[in-house]
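Worked example

This section walks through a single chain of length 917. The input is the sequence exactly as stored; nothing has been trimmed or padded.
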Amino acid sequence: GLLIETIRYRLASLDSLHSASGSKASLEAFQPSMTGEAIPMSISYAFKIKNAHPLGLFVGMNVAGSMSAKGRVSSDPEGIRFDADFDIKSLQWLDERTTFSMQASTLSFSFAGLDPSRVLQSLTADVHLAARAIELDSLLLNNVEVGVRQAGDSGRFSFASLIDSTVALELAGATKYDSGFMALDLEKCKVDFNSSYAIENIQPAPLRIGRDGLHIGSLWMRHEVEEIHASGTFAPNGASDLKFTVRDFLLTNIKSISNRIRESGAGVPFSGTVNAEVGFSGTFENPKLSLALSAHGVRYREIVLGQIVNRSSYADGALQLFAEFRSRPDDPSVAPDALVSGTIPFNISFTNAPPKALVGEMNLRVSANGFRLQLIEPFVSKVMTDLAGTIACDMKLTGLIESPSYEGSMTLRDVRLFFVPIGIQYIIDGTLSPRGRQIVLDNVSVSNIPQDRPDGKMTMSGAFTLDGIQIRDFDFKANGQLLVMKESSRRAGQNLYGDLFGATGPDGVTWRGTLARSFLSGTLLVKNADLVFPPMRQAQALPSNKIPVVLVDDRPAPQQDSLSVGGGPELLLVAAMDTAGLKAKSSVAVNNLQVNNPQPTRLAQANEGSAATFLDNIVHDLVVETQGITQIRFVFNNLTSEELFADIKGRAVFAKNGDQTRLTGEVELGNRSYYNSVFKKLDATGRINFTGNPFSPELDIVAKYEGTHRYDTTSASYAARTGAGATDPRYEADKVIVSLLITGTREQPKVKTELAYVVHGEIKQATGDVEADALAFLVTGSFRDELTQQQRGSFISTSMLGGLTSSILSGPLTDLLRKEFGIIRSIDVLYYGGNFGESADVRLTGEIGDAVIRLGGRVFNDINNTNVSLQIPMSAIMGSEKWRNLVLEAERRVEGVETVDQKRESKGLRLLYRITF
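Given that input, the structure is written out below as tokens.
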């Protein structure tokens, strides 16, 4: 109690940093509740907490973890002494706003001199904390070391930690209570980014802590020639006044500071030197900001860009802007390449208060004279790269925010870009002209580069309305034709690839609405298309020659969201919290900027998911109609070239709303369509029905193969079927027709086999074992009963390979093998992509009496990779049904077949007990 009272009094005695006189706050002398001399004593203690959850329930806190502690409490004429050592294996704490966890930590402290008559002068403290990991909300600290030593009014402190696995921070200095303030002499302040860029103070920095914040006298930090200076007052709940200065910062060092750029390996395209001054004053609710920036010798890759100057400020809901770019800074008579200047209403708040309505007038001028677009590429590189071309602009935005007025124009000249989402280069030209409250698109066009499609050009018309500097609504229309898909731009895992050249219908395609919700509608004409639907499994895992690199997160597994109680059944405790409210505490708006200090909990972040872009808010309602050559290939197996080639004609409706995507319609197969099976190429007719999933339509296909039957007139089969009183249309047929009726979906096709003969121009349907004869004729050119023993063996092996590698014919061929071999029950193949022989995993199941035999493995790579399992019911061995639930299994298993060094063979005999539900 005395220790806590002392700490409270010391904090309450701190004066305000904004005190006019700087004198100590008026406070009564310290009068502890404990008086008199302490009773001499010496008590040692130790305890161990295996599970802190019940203790948390007792004190009304949601905690969990395990720890142990030992210590000693003693008293003598110098006062009371309290020592403790904690060994904390894990500790988690969770409430509605905050999550906290600590792993593998030790905490030791010692307090002495607790004498009620002179505790402020006699108190000494020594505290040390070492933790492998501490996590507070989304902030992760590794290898934490904290040390505090205090003797009366003076002391020392140290802190070291690795923050978020990227930034190493070291602090050290001395403290002294002086005239109502806690004075800190910051002797060391070192920040190391990714162990490649370290900046450290060049002299001790004087700091003061008052009851309302922190005052920085002068903090100078340096890295080689680069310097950062900070000074001023920071008051979380009051008025702050901070100033930061950056001198001679090299833009190439951004790579060392930014972890995202380091992981991408792309390097920093910019170079140059930056000097800046940043100011922050006012409160978090009504801040005042200022920025003065000058960048010299700026280069983007090999292009010299010149000088960038920015002088901007924000106060009382108004943003003052002045930014210019000069490619020839040495010649002041030359106008800047780009200039933005003026005032616009703007709201910035660092609290969770609801955004304020924008009020006031704007007066903004934007001008550019041949501004090169390479400068903005780093900010849009996720969408477009290889930017080239210029912008000429002279626009004014004036008037009230509710009814702005625009003057001037903006012209795009030979703008070239690589559109990343589809991997195609485009050329953009045109002019944006203000008309009243709208910005109108005049002669805006998007074209393919001549190497891709010289006749590809789409004209854009329409207008958009601004709300300040933010797009409020728009109404665009596109007319023309454009290449929108290239086979050379195929990406891994793509469900559809190829070449697609499309055009708009007579009325064009319209796109109207807001960024929050817009509608895209119209008719799209497919003028030329050669599209490929790869195998479903291959679409999920495209083979690659690249070496996969996996980033391993070495952080401790977060445990604060659910607290596990050991020593029995697992009990999960999750605090009831308003996740919607937590989400609202971290938000950013363009015209109403809000940055809130409290971080959302990990539970709220999990519920929030990934942020959606305006592209996800587009509602599609498009009619897609074929107009030119439109070819689609459904590839079932790349190894055997099994595919359905469809030359289609028809129309479908594409609809998308949020995460719901549907394609409905019917297309007919043209005369050039075919199904290329494992054995023969069959002409295909019929239709494809899209009933929702664009990548798995319903099939209604008839694939036909016509051939001539060659038979041996000397064979016994021929004599038996053509003798006296015998008739067989097979031996009279001019042609034999094998038909495959393919139905089902592309993902799960179904096949029915038919066989017919053309006898003197008349089609006669076959009878008997139609499927076996049809498949035998398709594979060998002869019927099943005509095959010799050698031919039958060749036919069976070919059928087995076909059944394993074919998607369409796997069912019929497997049925045929069941007829030939009564023991076979199923044959499957698992293909993981890449080389078929190395990655195909064959699974065969058969039955011999009561025994079940299973063969499998990557046998095409090496027959010695075969896994064998033989299961025999003990009832068959013992001759009694009493043993029917016991199964004897003999097994041979081969693991690690990817490399010779990892290959391991094992053999075993097991007795299993079968439970039947």
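What to look for: Residues 823-917 form one domain.
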